[in-house]
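Need tokens for this chain, all 68 residues.
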Amino acid sequence: MRRQYHSRSVKDRMYIWDLHRLIELTRRYPVQQVPLSRIAELDECFWFQSEPATCRAVAQHGNMIQEV
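Here are the structure tokens for all 68 residues:
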């Protein structure tokens, strides 16, 4: 899997997470079931802020999701 990061601006601060590091740090955590309705990010537009959401870009993002 290629290097991936997640960033989020909260108030006046930018937070950036290295997903590979998060996966390693949480490898031994118990799996928890979470209803999709509790994941607010599903209703936010943050994948395509710097590029157009073309069909190709959406498909490529889907491929990355499958790899994870």
